[in-house]
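User: What would this chain look like folded?
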Amino acid sequence: MERTLVTADVIAWYAAEARDLPWRRADVSPWGVVVSEFMLQQTPVARVLAPWEAWLLRWPTPSALAAEPAGEAVRAWGRLGYPRRAQRLHQAACLMVSRHAGKVPETLAELRALPGVGEYTAAAIASFAFGQRHVVLDTNVRRVLARVESGTEFPPASLGSTERALAERWLPEGPGESSRWGVAAMELGARLCTASTPACHRCPIAASCRWFALGRPPSSQPRRVQAWEGTDRQCRGVLLARLRTSTEGVARDHLLAAWPQDAEQAERALGSLLADGLIRQAAPDRWFL
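Assistant: Here's the prediction, encoded as structure tokens.
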């Protein structure tokens, strides 16, 4: 398989078929890319579009966000889920102000030093915001590479050195082309080379795909499905939703009543939200974001 030809085909497909997402446009700021990467973690694109636009209108720079309390970031996060991302984004903005003159840092080391920025997010920001050459490995890219080169339906459960080395071999040499490959492979995985219903008949590289050539053998590893109904995560989200509706705080009993299913679970969720710094207790019986 000639990898350069395959990557060129994916990039050409992306140029013709990519969704017009606002954080991909040429005039988007590095901060806009940062906000999108935080919001897109474990959250579908459709749910991120409106919150991203609203966030950038309210806080167009790291300095604008850092000037407000962290609770406002959590409030504006709305129903995106995993609200600690909002908290960490606020913390990252504060560090950009204190360490980087209010700008998004450009190096991987500086990006990795920001709260909420791991290996993938740092590489994505450096690549998509600054055009640098880095391996960008999200779930979609990992699945595309597993199928095209390894002939397996899904990548390993955890990312290891072998998979990183494989991704490095697929990375085009030029920084501009490598960043286009990263976003194009992500789009291919999100649109065609999906986990449950891959559209191989429309894939631009089906003829080069080892998994397709093998007859699309199913994976032997069980797929994990995250539960939601009745979990502590859902309970925390319900309590936060009630707090978002008030700027004057909510009484404890009224807050816990938002989760009548299990009083002990509601108490536990309230305690964990306080421990995580997502809410604050300003009086014995008043709770705030």
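The first helix runs from residue 3 to 17. If you want, I can go into more detail on any region.
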